[in-house]
Fold this protein.
Amino acid sequence: MHERALPASPNWYCCRASDVNDAGILGFGARNTVCLVEVRTEACRVLGSLVGHSERVSGFSFCQHPGQSHLCVSSSDDGTVKFWDSSEKVVLKEHASHQGIIVAVHWSPADRNLVVSGDNQGLVLCHWFHTGDSARFCPGVKNLLSLSCSPHTWSHVALGYKQGLILVIDVSRKGEVVHRLRGHDDEIHSLSWSPTVREEEPESNSVGEADDWRPGCYLASGSKDQTIRIWSTETGKALVTLKLPYLKRRGTGGNPGLKERLWLSVLWPRGPAGHLLSSCFSGELLLWDLSCSGKQQWSMLGVGSEGQNHSRTVFNLNAVTLQDGSKLLLSTSMDREVKCWDQGSLACLWSLPTLGGSVCALGFSPVASGVLALGVADHAIRVWDTLSLQDPHHARTLWQGVKARVTALAWHPSKEASLAFGTEDGKVGIYDAFSNKPPQISSSYHQKTVYRLAWGPPLPPLCAGDRLPYTLYSCAGEGVILQHDPSNLSADALDIDVLIRKTNDIKHKMSPHTDLCWKPDGKVLAIGNDDGWVEVYGAPTLRHLCSIQQHRKTINTLGWNPGSDPQLHTLLASGSSGAKVYVHDLRSVIESPPDCPLVVTEPFRTLSGHTAKVTGLSWSPHHAAQLVTVSYDRTAQVWDVLKETGLANYRGHLNRVMCVQWSPVEPDRIWTGADDFSLHEWSVAGQDATAPPKSKRTTELREKAKAKARQKKSGGAEELLPTESPSSDNGDVATPLEDARNGRENGTEVKQDRTRSPLPTAAVFEAMKKSVPSAKNREKTALEPQMLKRKKPRSMLPLSTAMDHRSRDELLQDCVMLAHITHGSAPPAGCVPGQADHVHLGLFSDRQALYKMFQEEEESHLAAGHPDSVVYLRLWSGDLQGALQLATERGELNDHLLSIAPMAGFGAWRTAVDAYVQQLCLQDQHLKAASYLLSLHQVHDAVHLLQSHRLYREAIALVKSRLPADDPVLKELYVSWAAVLERDGHLSAAAKCYLAAGAGFEAAKVVSKKSDTASLQTGATIARLTGERALAHSLSLRCAKDLASTLDWRGAMEELSSQESLKVHSLYFCVAELLTAQLTVGEQLSSNHRWASVGLQRPLPDQIRDIWQEEFGVSEAEQGAVAELHRELRAVDNPQPGPNAPPKQVMLYLSVPLSLAVLSWLLGDGAEMLRRLWEAASWPWQSDRFTLSAQLCSALFPHGDVSISSGKLSTTFHPMEDRSLWVAPEKGVAPQAGVALQALLNYHLLYECWWRTAAEQGSANQGAGGSAGGGVTSGALPGGGVTNGGSVRGGLLKGGSAEGGVSNGGCDTGGEVINGDSEKGVVTNEDLAGGGVSNGVAGTGGGVTNGHSDPMGRALGFNAWALLSEPHAALQAAQQGVKEIQERLASLLLQHSQAQGGQPTAGEEDGGGSLSSTQPPPTEKGDGGVCLPSTCPTTTKEGDQGGSLSSTQPPPAEKGDGGDSLPSTCPTTTKEGDRGGSLSSTQPPPVEKGDGGDSLPSTCPTTTKEGDLEGSLTPMHHPTNSASGCEEQDSLLGLASQMSRFQAELDLLPDTAKTYAHPDVLECCLALLHLGNCGGPAVPLPVQQRATELLRKFGSRPSVQKASKRFLC
């Protein structure tokens, strides 16, 4: 059909919209077609298009199997998938199974029958071409963007999604997901499989190592995240990640920070292993070598010369191997070029320019032979050298300064590079077509689209002086022709109508101009007008020569014959929106100008054949009388003008043909541009047709439309207008739907098209509906309502109208009857005008007859259900009251009736308004009803109406605009609306309503209802501003506590400082922050307060006092203020935290008593200070938070004694030096609180000494160790004992046997051996409080306990007397006895219940002894969920038959917070079960876990388990080992008697002992005695004696007796 062509541009943003087969045929989606291009090494050729889709083609793929390469498939946004025979360009089959927009389609390279398509809803459809079977899969992910079928495994399909996810599914297993490939962060633009099954393994690369590679199928993916990833489909892992490089474009500076538009395409071509092709940021193409180990793994294509690369984003890549072995790469880009590359040299072989819009104008240069300029609707100009031998498609693109559709072009007659252009937005400019200079733009803009440009001789006043051979003329849609000075485009252009009016003395309005054409010799100008006339003027004065009044529609194109034949050079051809072309011979007018303008009404020749408007024409420069014309009928027609016959008709375009040019070089070549975005070159001799196709199809469709309209009419549907065909000048039918859409309608101009086209016929409309399948789902065009016949309004007088449609005789009789009525003395008998059979005569008689006719008509309307017509009849008759009453009764009042109701009086109008308001309320038109109430000045009623229907906003606006500001209804509205908003969860809006109503309290409450920090802060601020101080106080405190819970101390303090009444809270929050910083391990503080730094060099009270004085101004000098703060702080609610409370809550709780203690200190109240310090320090110990208790005591008293002394304050507390106060303290509050506090502090120091001693002796034993098998050292001992030291095993030193144990320091006479070891010891203070060292204490049982004289050179470092309180020992013994009796009572009850049920007693054993257990409570949870141990002192397992082995081993190190090793605090564990003697062991209980899995030590010094066969545990002070004693004790009366004795003992004890608890006194006695006998720090002899006395007096429990046996012997 055509020789050369420029096709439409490839579609953008499609992942797989192009493909090439092994025959070298490239297909790519271009608009709604598929363009086919033959690819060769030296050039390409456009073969044609596959036409059938109605919307954009989104995917295209060839079948790559031998024998089927001509088969291909395409997908479109119209929802269809079509299968084609590309050689015949016909559709073979299609399906429309997708519901969403199809994004890609691929013909499987591994299965010649399988085609896979996917849509944006995530649906994947498999269609088998030969069988027609199909299968649907939905992997469950939406937003599919790309897909690719595996060339190795036919059932594997890779899917890429917008979320960055890649799925590999198996279509043979119902879409089962084989791999989920995650790694990309953004859209997957492209997927490409490796062409071979086993790729060569790259050595290494910058991202992945060679070890990651393994043989298998590889998949490459390109993503919007600027990376390319190579995946192994065997392992499902990413092997390589390639990051796109930032490249500097030639002539421009690269800006890595500038995000350019990116579409990352990838292609794995056949060739060297590991070569991968990809696009880059700005159109560059990169060839990646995956086997390269260097820094740069890529090579850029087209680096050899300027301009080879694409200039914008590349969307699709393809590769083909031609039959001659050439390996080519193909790319399509946003720069509207298709490029071909040599895969070996990476050089660009050729480029095919494409068009992104309609070709609106064409023009050959009269100087540069064969240079063709194209004006395109894609806002660019193409300049194509059609005679180029090196590159047949070489074209330059001019786009600078255009910025609109190019609608007109004109080459300068003598300047080679000067090209004038006009645009859709009215711009006129001149380009230097062969340089890179920007265009010159005229300062005179047209108001509408420029339709024609022409170079011609200058007209006055520019012709003065002959300085310009040519000027530029432009004609635009507003009907004005301007003359531009090309040498000074900044000057104003001249309107030639001024000269025409002046020369020809024209006074009337001139018709708008639509086209102009200068005769080649420059002597005559022809101007076409909007009314179809052609005016001919003589230059230079533009004298009017003649008017050609042949056309009836807008002139679209004019052309003078360019030949030199004297008989033909005066021929003027003209084409209009009609279908005919007229040629006039104006030789007589030109050669002999008439005095008055002539009117030409007869053409020289008439060229008929087109079936739509003519848009362009061109005379042949080679044949004097040949003319080519183009039309909206999609054809180009070549005419023999003299014979008025057609020579050839070209039908290769798919849409309206817009412009035409006859080749100035080749006589047989013609160039046409069309609305199908293409330019074609074709040969006249190569066309089979000689005339345009007739409009048979249009006629047939019109007939079908008529039949369809008649069918609809018979079915009750609305009629279509008569299908009058829009006739052209020769009467032919000729207007497609595009004419109506783009042409002028009713005289209104539409851009681009200058014709007035009639509306399309119904037949044409139906034809278009059939030709566009998707039109059903789109909006109906604006023309459709105009094509339906208007519905005839219903008659107000149907009865009289019907009477006029009777028979002719009856109508004649009516005339006689009416003559009798109007001119006779009386009407005929039985004739009453306006009633019965003569109802229609009431219209022609008097008023009374008319009223009677109205009454009859009203009854008829009511019967027909048309009461509105009755209302109008009553209005016409003047019965307005009746009309209103009828409309009110029927609920059919309307605005019109209300507007005329005042004519019936104020009362009638008011009644009608009230009725109308009720009617509107029933119709839910409450706003309108309220407006009508306002017309009655019923403002309160209108407000109530709006409020009752929850239109609060409108009601408030009405009140504020119409009622006084103090009207109570306003506050009521605000409160009501606030309640509704609060119920619906719109808290902020509700708060605003409360504020407007003056309810600040409610506003603060509702805004803080969400209880987040922002809401609480806002609520506190509102409460403070509205004077609600109590609420502001509460909300600020809650907000501060919430901020403190997140460790945002600065925010908490700022919130508290906002109110002076919260100063006391600021004090203890400050203390809480200080505690958190110094005692909490692993917490990150958000505060940057100065006092938050961790440091324990000074006592904590001193730090608190100094911070308060500096930050808050609290000092001893302000006694009144301090007393007030103390009073306020005592009133603060401070509930105790639970066992699982987090550390932050614990610190906030402890900060209150500490703050009270410091305030008491400032007030000089030492008793209150000590009581508060005891409260703060004892609570962690009593709540099983041993570690926290030790840390707090160390922070309060870093020097080891309970004293607070300062140079700044006179108030000072010193520890008690008198030992009697420790042994038998007075009952005063202050001394006893201090004693208890010192006892707790010494308790922690005792165990620090324990750990230190054990660690030192363990190191000494290890240094003096023996052999590798355990390092055994033997020596003769009095009792035959053996000293045996071993190595560390799991943190414990183990050794000894059942008969003779391990001894570190000494042995008693009974052969018992004491062994102690440890891993770690800590000491904080080495000052001696008691002094003195004892070498030994004699026991009563003949045993000897040896005490060392501090061989390490260290002392206890604390006053041990504080731990030996006899009242507390008695209290603890009595409490333990009560506890044991309670346990025995529970055991008796359990035994009784089991005996009743016939079950054996739980305590019975074969040995005959009863089993009694006094086991400790289970381990409890401490701060923040950390496991903290029980404080039960002793663990005893009883099962001995005889003697005992006593072992004194230290506890193993355990893990604390943060992973540090913390030693166990449990000193003694007694296990009884030896046959040779009792074993007393001071080893720790099992290690427990703390935060994060760290080990926390047990604070349980002793756990007791009883299972001994010797007897059961006896009560304290009453040891009984006989069987009778057990029976007596286990009796209910015996237990009750013991309970009474214990209660009596408890009553005798002082209250201070019960108020201020001490650590377990017996436990401390055992620990001190052990330290005095194990070679550790010296324990004073009086202390040991006192400990022995307490053990003898209160250690009656078997577990204690066995643990202390070696000390009491």
